[in-house]
Design goal:
Elements (H helix, E strand, L loop, with lengths): L4 E9 L7 E6 L17 E7 L4 E8 L2 E11 L7 E6 L4 E9 L10 E7 L3 E7 L9 E2 L5 E5 L9 E7 L2 E6 L4 E4 L12 E3 L4 H7 L11 E9 L2 E8 L3 E6 L5 E6 L8 E8 L8 E10 L6 E11 L5 E11 L5 E6 L3 E6 L2 E6 L10 E5 L1 H8 L8 H11 L7 H13 L7 H10 L6 H5 L3 H15 L5 H22 L2 E7 L4 E6 L3 E6 L2 H7 L17 H21 L2 H8 L12 H11 L3 H11 L1 H33 L2 H15 L16 H33 L8 H30 L10 H8 L5 H9 L7 H6 L10 H4 L6 H17 L10 H13 L3 H17 L3 H6 L3 H19 L3 H19 L4 H6 L18 H18 L3 H26 L8 H18 L3 H10 L3 H18 L16 H14 L8 H11 L3 H19 L4 H23 L7 E2 L22 H5 L9 E2 H19 L14 H9 L3 H11 L2 H21 L6 E2 L28 E2 L4 H12 L6 H12 L7 H8 L2 H4 ...
Parallel strand pairs: 1-27, 2-6, 2-10, 35-36
Antiparallel strand pairs: 1-30, 3-4, 4-5, 5-6, 7-8, 8-9, 9-11, 12-13, 13-14, 14-15, 16-17, 17-18, 18-19, 20-21, 21-22, 22-23, 24-25, 25-26, 26-27, 28-29, 29-30, 31-32, 33-34
C-alpha cells in the first residue's frame, strides 16, 4: 500500500564521533584455519544498551576490513569518547556480533561480553573492559577469550544465522536445524552444553499448543527476545515458517507458516522482533520479503504477536501493515512497542503501530545528513555554485580584487562546519590531490592550519587565478569531498533507545541522532497541500489569513529560487570580509539583481571566461528567467492583494508570520549546570541547523518586502503601506536576522586556539582548581569540532519548564532535542532574566564575557560589532544606549576585545587599525549614559582589568577615572600613542572633577591635590611620548609638569633613555632649550658618567665634554674629559692586551681634547682642579657660563690654586700615555707610576721597540742640559748597536709624536668636536743605518757630539767595522772652508782620527791624516795667505804621535811589518813636507813681520820728522 510521508525530523551528527582514535586489540586462536562454514563478511552494525545509567556500545564490521570489529562505548551524560576499540580476529568475520552485560561477573572488571562468529564457523566470547580502561594497543590474554568451533558439534552443512545473549549462543543451519550452546555458562565438555531446538510434547501441552510438524527449510534469521522475564528464540525459515522457542528449555512455543499469505516465489529474508508491551501483551514482528519475480522488489510485513498467560497461554498472530520498498534498498529496521523505524538508503521513515493505524496511513520521514552536506557544499542541483560567483561579483563590484578571497572564505567556512567536516574525509580528499600527511601532522592542525592547507591547494590548482578558474577548483574539490563523505559515511544501522525514544544512525565513521523539526521548519518544508495542517503546529490563522499566508510563502519561495541559496551565503559572509562590509549593504545589490539582473561587469566576466557563444546563451537564459520571475511576481502579488482585499491585511499576515521567526523566550529559573556531553553536542549542532533555516527564511522575507517597496507603484501599494514596511516591518526583520545571524555564528564558528603569551597566562590555562570537564574544553579550543557554542554551554542553565531532559543520563528523544535548542537559543538572545526587554543588547554582554574569559577575541568582536551596528540603525538608539548602561558595557567589552586582538594576533597596519577602533570604543563607552554604574557591575572573574573606583558624583570625575584606567591598559600592552590620548583626555577633566568634588562635599574625593594628579598624568604623557621617540613632545610634557619632584624624576628618565638610545646629543646641540634645567641635566650626566662603565656607548664623559664645549665652558669641558682619561688610566692597568690598547688610545684622545679645551681659555685661567680621590665627583663652583676674555682678566695675575693641573702637566701626561700606548701595541707592558719624571727604563723599552720618535719625545720633554745629552748618547748608542747586529732588513720606525691634540673618536662611536689625530710615522725604506742617519741628522743639533758617540759605539762593538760614509762626512763636512787642518767642534776630523787610532784602524787614520795634510798643501793661492797666519793651521800632533808609536810597536812586534812600514814612511814623508812647509810659512811670516816692523818704524820716524 502507498503511505503519505511527511517530513518530521532531521539527522543531527554527534560531534566528535568521526574523530575516534582506535586502540588495537588482537584476539589469538588455537583453532587451525578451515574452509568457510558461516555467512561471508558484509557491512554490519548494531547497538547494545547495557546498564543503568545506560551505556551505548556500538559495534561495526566493514567488508573492506573483514577481520576487524570496531566497538565504541559512550554515555548520554558524558562527552563522546575520543578512543575506541578495534579488535583484530584471526579470520574473517560473519556479519554478526552481540555485546551483552556480564551480569554474573559484573564486579570482575569485565562488564561486557562480546560474541562474534568467523566465516570458518569459530565463535568467540571475549571479555571486555570499558574502552577507557585500555591504555594502549595489546594482545588479549587467553584468560579473556573463549573459543567454540561450531563445526565440531554441528551435523548440518553450514551456518546461516546466529544469535546470542548472556551465556547462550544459538546458530541455525542450512538444513533448518537450530542449536543452542551454553557458551560462557558451561564448560564445553559438560553435559547439556549443546542442545537442539526440537519439539517436546510435554512442554507443548503445557503451553496449550499442538505440534505442527517439522520444517526442513534453511534458517534465514534468528532473534532472541526477552518476554515477561523469559527469553524466547524467534526462528524464521526461508519457506516462511516462523518458530518461537523457549531458550532455557529449547521447547517450541509457537509456529506459523507465512507461505500462504505471501506472493508466489517470495523469500522471507529477515526477521525483526520488537519489545513486548507489558500492558497489552503484544510483541511487534516485521518480516522482509523479497520477490524473485520482480527484481529489487521488497516488502516489509508487520504483525502483532499476542500472548496471554494464566491457566492457559494463548498466542496469536495479527497482521498490521505491509510496506513496499520501491525506492532505495532496505538497510535496517527497529521496532518498539508502538513504532517501527525503517532505514533505507534514501532516508528514514517512522510508522506508527497503534491500533488506530492498523492497515497503514501517514508516515513520518526524516532527512538524512547527505542532503544537509550537499546543500552546504552547493552539490544540490537547485543550488548551483556558479550563482555564488556571479552574485559575489555583483555585490563586490567596487572590490573586484576581493572576489577570490570572498568566495574562498565561503567555501572554507562551509567545509569546516560541524557535520560537514570530517577528518577522515578531508584527509582522503587531500590525498586525491597528492597532499599527504602523517597522523601526527594532520591531527595537530588547527582550524587556521586546515584553512591554509586547503587554500594553498586551491591556489595551486586554480592557476592563473581568475575567478572562474578558482571557482572550478572549488567545485571539483567540493565534489570530491562530497563523494568521499558519502563513501565514508555510508549507512550501517539504526540506534533506537525505546526507554527514552531516542533514535539515531550508525554510519561507517560516525554516529548521529534524529530531532524533530521546529514549527517554522515544518511550515517551510511543507508542500502547498500540507499548509492546511498548520493549525496543528500552533499557527493560528483563519482560513482567509491562511490563504494569504500561503500566497506570501509562494512569493518568498519565488524570490529564494530566483537568487538561489548563494545569496544567503553572501549575506552571512559579508561582515567577516576584509575590508569589512555590512550585511545591509548586500541587500540593495541583491534587489538590483531581482530588478534588472546581473550588471555589465558580470556579463563582461562571463564573456572573457566562458567565451562569446556560451556567455550569450547564458545571458539570454538569464534574461528569460528574469522576465518570467518578474511576471510571476507581478501576478502573484496582485492575486495576493486581491485575496486580502488591502495591502494592510497582507502586511498583518506577514507581521504575524515574522513573530514565528523571532527566537522564543523561555524563562530560565532553574540552575542546572550543563557539562560537555552528547546532549550538548547534539544541542549545538541542532541549533546550527535551526538557525540556518531561520536566518535564510528571515532574509527571504526581507528581500520580498524590499522588492515590494521597489515595485509598489506597479502593485498599487499605498504610501502608508510602504511607510509601514520601511519603518516597522523592515527594522523588525533586521533585528530577527541579526539575532539568528549571531546564533548561527556561535553554533558554527570554530573556537580560537588559546594564545599563551607569558607565564601567567600559561599557568592560568592549567586550571589547577577547575573541573576536569572545563580543562578538557580548553584542550579542544582551536579545533574544527569545537564551535563557540560549546563555550557558552558552560554558563547555560536548564529551563524551568522541563528540566528532566537536561539531567537524564540517556540519549535525548527527538522532541527533547528541539526543546534543548529552544532553551539554548532563548538563553543566547534573552538570557535568564524574567524582565521584558525590547532589545537583544542586555544579554550580549554576558555572552561576550563568557567568550572573553576563554580568549575568543574574534568572536567577541563580531558579536559586539553586530550589536553596535544594529544600535546605530535603530531609530531609538539613544534610548537603547541609555537603558541600564548596557550599551556602554558592550562598547567597553568591544574595546577590550579589539585591544587583545591587536596585542596577540596582529601586526602592522591591521594592528594600528584595531588599536584605533579600541580607542574609539573606550571613548564612546565613557560618554554613554549610565556607564559608571553599569561598568562597575562587571564581575571580577570576567578576565578583564578591574575598574576599581569610588562612586563618582560627576561625569568629569567618572571620565577622569575611566580615562586613567584606559591609559593604564594601553600602557600594559605597550601601546603608547593610544595611552597618551587617554592621558590628555584625563588632563582635560582634572579641573572640573576636582572643583565639583570640593564644591559638593568640601572634601576632595580623589584624596589628591590637583598638582599631584596633573603631575602624574603629565609624567605618563612624558613616558608615552618618550616611548614613541617624540623627544620634543616628551620635553614639553616634562616642563609642563607642575610637580617639581615628578619633573626631576622625568628628567632623569629622559637622560637615561636618550643615553640608551644613542640620541643624547640633542641635549648638547641646542635642539632643546633646557630652560632652568641646565644644572640638573649636568648633574644627571655626571652621575651617569661616574656610575657607568668606561666602555659605555655613547660615553657619558664625552657627552659632558660636548655639552660644555657647546656652551663654551672650556675649563669644565677639559675637566670632564680629563676625568675620563684618569678613569681609563686606572682601569687600563688591569686589562688584558686587547682592551688595554683600546683604553690607552681612548685616554690619549681624552688628554688631547683636554689640552685643546684649555688652549681656548685665557692663559691666566688655563688650569683645572686635580682629580679627587673619592668615587663621587666633588661639587665646586666652576664657571658655568661662556668664558669671556676681558681686559681685566688679561691684566690680572695668575689665580691658580696651589694644587692644579695645567697645560704643561697635561702635555707631560700625554707624552707618557703615548709611550705607554705604543708599547702596548708592541705587546710591551709598561705602566706610568706617577706624574713625575719617568725612568730611563721607559726610553730603553721604546728604543728596543723601535719607537724612536716617542723615545726622543720623552727625552726632550723631561730632560735638559747635560742630562739630555747623556741620555741622547745612550739612545744613539743603542741604535748603533742595532746596526752592528742587523746588517740587512727593513725597519719600520714610528714617529709617534702627536701633531694634534684634539679628541679622537673610538671605533663605531660618534665624537663631538673632534678631528682625526692619527700619529705620523716614519717608515724606513732601508735598514738600521738609514734609520740611524735619519735620527742623527734630526737630533744632532741638541748634541754635536752624537757622531762621536755613534762612531765610538760602532768601533767598540767591532773595531774592524766600516763606518758609514754619511757618518764620516759628518766628521769632515764643512771644515775645509772655515778652518785649516783638522780643527773643529766635538765631531771634528781630529775626533775621527783619535777614534781610528784608539781602535787600531791605522790605515784609515793614516789616510785621514794624509788627506788633510795634502789638502793643506794644495790650497789655492788665495788661501795660502790665510794659511800663513798665526795659528791658522792645527793638527792633533799628540794623536799623530800616538799613531807613530803604535806603528812602531806593530813593526817591533812583527805584526803587519810591511804595511806598517809603508804607513810609517807615508806619515814620515808627509810630516816632513808638512813641517818644511810650516817652516817656510813661519819664516815667511817672520820676514813679513820684520818687514812690517820696519815699515812701522819708518812711519813713526817720518811722523816725528
Amino acid at each position: 500500500m502507498t503511505n503519505r510521508s511527511v517530513l518530521a525530523g532531521m539527522e543531527v551528527p554527534i560531534i566528535g564521533s568521526d574523530s575516534i582514535q582506535w586502540l588495537q586489540l588482537t584476539v589469538t586462536s588455537t583453532t587451525p584455519s578451515q574452509p568457510p562454514f558461516a555467512p561471508p563478511t558484509e557491512d554490519a552494525a548494531a547497538c547494545s544498551i547495557i546498564g543503568t545509567p545506560p551505556s551505548y556500545l556500538i559495534w561495526r564490521i566493514h567488508k573492506s576490513q573483514p577481520r576487524q570489529l570496531e566497538i565504541v562505548e559512550f554515555c548520554g551524560d558524558k562527552e563522546f569518547p575520543r578512543v575506541g576499540l578495534q579488535i583484530q580476529f584471526p579470520d574473517a568475520l560473519s556479519p554478526f556480533a552481540v555485546i551483552c552485560g556480564n551480569e554474573k561477573h559484573y564486579g570482575s572488571g569485565y562488564p561486557y561480553m562480546l560474541y562474534a562468529l568467523t566465516v570458518s564457523g569459530v565463535a568467540y566470547l571475549v571479555k571486555l573492559k570499558s574502552s577507557l580502561s585500555y591504555a594502549s594497543s595489546a594482545v588479549l590474554p587467553q584468560s579473556e577469550i573463549m573459543e567454540l568451533n561450531v563445526k565440531l558439534y554441528a551435523q548440518y552443512e553450514a551456518i546461516t544465522a546466529a544469535a546470542a545473549t548472556t551465556g547462550f549462543f544459538v546458530v541455525g543451519g542450512n538444513d533448518g536445524f537450530v542449536s543452542c550452546f551454553q557458551f560462557g555458562t558451561l564448560d564445553p565438555s559438560a553435559p547439556g552444553f549443546m542442545r537442539e531446538m526440537r519439539d517436546d510434547a510435554g512442554f507443548s501441552r503445557l503451553w496449550g499448543l499442538v505440534s505442527r510438524g517439522r520444517t526442513i527449510a534453511s534458517v534465514q534469521s534468528l532473534v532472541i527476545a526477552k518476554v515477561h522475564g523469559g527469553e524466547l528464540v524467534f526462528v524464521l525459515h526461508s519457506n516462511g515458517a516462523l518458530f518461537v522457542w523457549d531458550l532455557l528449555s529449547c521447547g517450541r512455543i509457537f509456529n506459523h507458516n507465512f507461505s500462504a499469505s505471501t506472493l508466489t516465489g517470495a523469500i522471507h529474508a529477515r526477521l525483526w522482533v520488537g519489545e513486548a508491551n507489558s500492558e497489552s501483551s503484544v510483541i511487534p514482528l516485521a518480516f522482509l520479503c523479497k520477490s524473485n519475480l520482480e527484481i529489487g522488489m521488497e516488502m516489509v510485513n508487520v504483525y502483532r504477536l499476542h500472548f496471554s498467560t494464566g491457566d492457559k497461554t494463548n498466542v496469536s498472530l495479527e497482521p498490521i501493515i505491509n510496506i513496499s520498498l520501491d525506492e532505495g534498498g532496505l538497510i535496517d529496521i527497529k521496532l518498539t512497542s508502538n513504532k517501527m523505524w525503517i532505514l533505507k538508503e534514501d532516508g528514514l521513515e517512522m510508522q506508527e503501530l497503534s491500533v488506530s493505524n492498523v492497515g497503514g496511513g501517514e508516515s513520518n520521514c526524516y532527512a538524512l545528513q547527505e542532503s544537509y552536506v550537499a546543500d552546504q557544499l552547493f552539490q544540490s542541483p537547485e543550488h548551483s555554485s556558479d550563482d555564488l560567483l556571479w552574485l559575489s561579483h555583483s555585490v563586490l563590484s567596487s572590490l573586484k580584487d576581493q572576489v577570490f578571497s570572498f568566495v574562498s572564505s565561503i567555501f572554507l567556512r562551509r567545509l569546516l562546519l560541524c557535520g560537514v567536516h570530517q577528518n577522515t574525509v578531508l584527509r582522503a580528499t587531500l590525498q586525491d590531490y597528492n597532499k599527504h600527511f602523517s597522523d601526527s601532522e594532520f591531527y595537530s592542525l588547527t582550524v587556521d592550519g586546515l584553512k591554509k592547507e586547503i587554500l594553498s591547494l586551491i591556489e595551486n590548482e586554480g592557476f592563473p587565478g581568475t575567478p572562474v578558474s578558482v571557482l572550478r577548483c572549488w567545485k571539483t574539490f567540493c565534489k570530491r569531498y562530497f563523494h568521499n563523505w558519502c563513501k565514508n559515511g555510508a549507512l550501517c544501522g539504526l540506534l533506537v533507545d525505546s526507554s527514552t525514544g531516542a533514535v539515531g544512525l550508525i554510519r561507517k565513521n560516525s554516529i548521529t541522532l534524529f530531532r524533530y523539526l521546529e514549527d517554522i521548519e515544518l511550515l517551510i518544508y511543507s508542500s502547498s497541500e500540507e499548509y492546511g495542517d498548520l493549525v496543528k503546529h500552533g499557527f493560528e490563522f483563519s482560513n482567509s489569513e491562511l490563504e494569504v499566508l500561503v500566497g506570501v510563502l509562494r512569493c518568498i519561495s519565488n524570490v529564494s529560487q530566483q537568487l538561489g541559496r548563494a545569496s544567503s551565503a553572501i549575506f552571512y559572509e559579508s561582515p567577516f570580509n576584509t575590508p569589512n562590509m555590512s550585511s545591509q549593504e548586500v541587500v540593495p545589490h541583491l534587489l538590483k539583481i531581482l530588478d534588472t539582473g546581473f550588471n555589465s561587469s558580470v556579463t563582461a566576466l562571463q564573456r572573457s571566461e566562458l567565451g562569446t557563444d556560451s556567455s550569450w546563451e547564458k545571458e539570454v537564459a538569464d534574461h528569460k528567467r528574469l522576465r518570467k520571475f518578474s511576471a510571476n511576481m507581478f501576478l502573484s502579488l496582485h492575486s495576493l492583494c486581491s485575496k486580502a482585499v488591502t495591502w494592510g491585511k497582507v502586511l498583518d499576515v506577514i507581521e504575524r508570520y515574522l513573530k514565528f521567526l523571532v527566537p522564543r523566550k523561555i524563562v530560565h529559573k532553574m540552575k542546572n549546570n550543563i557539562v560537555f556531553n552528547v546532549k550538548s553536542s547534539v544541542t549545538v549542532q541542532s541549533t546550527s541547523q535551526v538557525a540556518k533555516v531561520m536566518f535564510e527564511s528571515a532574509l527571504d522575507v526581507l528581500l520580498l518586502l524590499n522588492y515590494m517597496v521597489n515595485i509598489s507603484g506597479q502593485i498599487h501599494m499605498l504610501p502608508d503601506d510602504v511607510s509601514r514596511i520601511q519603518l516597522e516591518l523592515v527594522p523588525m526583520i533586521h533585528e530577527v536576522i541579526t539575532e539568528w545571524h549571531i546564533i548561527y555564528f556561535l553554533a558554527t564558528t570554530p573556537s580560537e586556539a588559546p594564545a599563551f603569551e607569558d607565564f601567567s597566562s600559561q599557568l592560568s590555562s592549567l586550571q589547577i582548581d577547575s573541573k576536569v570537564d572545563k580543562r578538557s574544553w580548553n584542550e579542544k579550543l582551536g579545533k574544527s569540532d569545537f564551535p563557540l557554542a560549546f563555550i557558552l554551554l558552560l554558563n547555560f542553565h536548564g529551563s524551568a519548564e522541563d528540566t528532566s531532559h537536561m539531567s537524564h543520563t540517556s540519549l535525548p528523544e527527538p522532541s527533547n532535542i528541539i526543546s534543548l535548542v529552544r532553551d539554548f537559543t532563548s538563553w543566547i538572545i534573552w538570557g535568564r532574566t524574567e524582565e521584558e526587554s525590547s532589545a537583544f543588547f542586555s544579554h550580549s554582554t554576558e555572552l561576550a564575557l563568557v567568550l572573553l574569559r576563554h580568549g575568543q577575541f574574534d568572536a567577541v568582536q563580531y558579536l559586539l560589532s553586530f550589536v553596535d551596528e544594529h544600535s546605530r540603525k535603530e531609530k531609538t538608539s539613544e534610548s537603547i544606549q541609555s537603558v541600564d548602561g548596557h550599551f556602554s558595557i558592550c562598547l567597553h567589552l568591544l574595546g577590550c576585545c579589539l585591544l587583545a586582538q591587536a596585542q596577540h594576533k596582529l601586526h602592522g597596519l591591521l594592528k594600528e587599525h584595531k588599536v584605533c577602533e579600541a580607542v574609539r570604543c573606550f571613548f564612546r563607552a565613557a560618554s554613554t549614559q549610565g556607564a559608571p554604574k553599569a561598568l562597575q557591575s562587571l564581575p571580577v572573574e570576567a578576565g578583564l582589568p578591574y575598574l576599581e573606583f569610588i562612586d563618582c558624583q560627576s561625569v568629569a570625575a567618572w571620565k577622569l577615572h575611566y580615562y586613567q584606567w584606559a591609559m593604564q591598559i594601553f600602557e600594559q600592552y605597550n601601546l603608547s600613542e593610544a595611552a597618551s590620548q587617554f592621558a590628555f583626555a584625563a588632563l582635560e577633566q582634572v579641573d572640573e572633577a576636582l572643583n565639583f568634588a570640593e564644591d559638593s562635599s568640601g572634601v576632595d574625593q580623589l584624596q589628591e591635590s590637583a598638582n599631584v594628579v596633573r603631575g602624574r598624568l603629565w609624567a605618563n604623557v612624558f613616558k608615552f611620548t618618550l616611548d614613541l621617540n617624540n623627544y620634543y613632545d616628551a620635553y614639553c610634557a616634562m616642563i609642563s609638569n607642575p610637580d617639581e619632584e615628578s619633573k626631576y624624576i622625568c628628567l632623569r628618565r629622559f637622560i637615561i633613555v636618550l643615553y640608551e638610545r644613542g640620541t643624547v646629543q640633542i641635549l648638547c646641540n641646542g635642539q632643546l632649550p633646557l630652560i632652568g634645567l641646565t644644572e640638573k641635566v649636568e648633574q644627571e650626566l655626571v652621575w651617569k658618567a661616574l656610575s657607568s662603565d668606561t666602555y659605555a656607548k655613547p660615553n657619558p664623559f664625552k657627552l659632558l665634554y660636548a655639552c660644555e664645549m657647546h656652551r663654551h665652558n672650556w675649563r669644565r669641558a677639559s675637566y670632564y674629559i680629563y676625568l675620563y682619561s684618569a678613569r681609563l688610566r686606572t682601569e687600563a692597568a688591569v686589562k688584558d692586551y686587547q682592551h688595554r690598547s683600546s683604553m690607552l688610545q681612548e685616554r690619549l684622545n681624552g688628554l688631547s681634547a683636554a689640552i685643546n679645551a684649555l688652549h681656548l681659555v685665557h692663559p691666566a685661567y688655563a688650569w683645572i682642579d686635580p682629580i679627587p680621590d673619592q668615587s663621587s665627583l666633588h661639587r665646586e663652583n666652576y664657571p658655568s657660563k661662556k668664558a669671556r676674555i676681558t681686559i681685566e682678566e688679561q691684566t690680572t695675575g695668575d689665580k691658580r690654586p696651589q694644587s692644579y693641573v695645567d697645560i704643561e702637566i697635561l702635555e707631560n701626561e700625554f707624552v707618557l700615555a703615548s709611550a705607554e700606548y705604543l708599547l702596548s701595541l708592541a705587546d710591551v707592558k709598561w705602566t706610568n707610576t706617577g706624574n713625575g719624571e719617568p725612568s730611563l727604563d721607559l726610553v730603553d723599552l721604546l728604543v728596543q721597540s723601535n719607537l724612536y720618535d716617542t723615545a726622543f719625545a720623552v727625552l726632550l720633554k723631561f730632560w735638559r742640559g747635560s742630562e739630555l745629552k747623556r741620555h741622547l748618547e745612550r739612545v744613539f748608542a743603542q741604535m748603533s748597536l742595532k746596526c752592528c747586529s742587523i746588517t740587512d732588513g727593513t725597519l719600520l720606525v714610528g714617529n709617534n709624536k702627536m701633531r694634534g691634540l684634539l679628541l679622537q673618536s673610538s671605533k663605531d662611536e660618534p665624537a663631538y668636536g673632534s678631528v682625526d689625530t692619527a700619529p705620523s710615522t716614519y717608515q724606513s725604506t732601508g735598514n738600521h743605518w738609514e734609520t740611524l742617519e735619519f735620527y742623527l741628522e734630526k737630533y744632532r743639533g741638541f748634541h754635536p757630539g752624537l757622531p762621536v758617540a755613534i762612531a765610538e759605539t760602532l768601533l767598540s762593538s767591532d773595531a774592524q767595522i766600516e763606518l758609514p760614509l754619511w757618518l764620516v762626512r759628518l766628521f769632515k763636512g764643512g771644515r775645509r772652508e772655515s778652518t785649516l787642518g783638522m780643527a773643529g767642534n766635538e765631531s771634528s776630523p781630529a775626533s775621527l782620527l783619535r777614534l781610528y787610532v784608539d781602535y787600531g784602524r791605522y790605515a784609515e787614520a793614516t789616510n785621514l791624516l794624509l788627506e788633510y795634510i795634502e789638502s793643506l798643501a794644495s790650497l789655492r793661492p788665495a788661501d795660502i795667505t790665510r794659511r800663513k797666519k798665526t795659528a791658522g793651521v792645527w793638527f792633533p800632533y799628540t794623536t799623530i804621535e800616538r799613531l807613530w808609536y803604535r806603528l812602531k810597536e806593530m813593526i817591533s812586534s812583527g805584526h803587519m811589518v810591511d804595511q806598517c812600514e809603508k804607513l810609517k814612511k807615508l806619515i814620515e814623508g808627509s810630516l816632513r813636507n808638512h813641517l818644511n812647509m810650516l817652516k817656510v810659512d813661519s819664516d815667511d811670516m817672520l820676514s813679513l813681520q820684520q818687514h812690517g816692523n820696519k815699515l812701522h818704524q819708518t812711519e813713526e820716524v817720518l811722523h816725528e820728522s
